[in-house]
Specification:
2 strands, single chain
Amino acid sequence: MGPNFKDPTVFSISDSYRESSYETPLMCLQPGVDPLIEIERFAKSRKKAETMKVISLGQGQNKVAEHLLQEARKHGYWIVL
């Protein structure tokens, strides 16, 4: 196995953002790491902090999340689930 499989990758929110679109959301999954601070900092740098919505998915939150996703698509909000 080469280094691509054994060495951890470094997450770059800027690179991931460039590869995302409204149809291809940015996915940030890092075991043992809460990326919210980095996402909030990035949102501020992109002038999106005011329209960024954060919701924890748990029991009964699916309807709220679905509504937020629909609103985000219409108005350009950022949603952090």
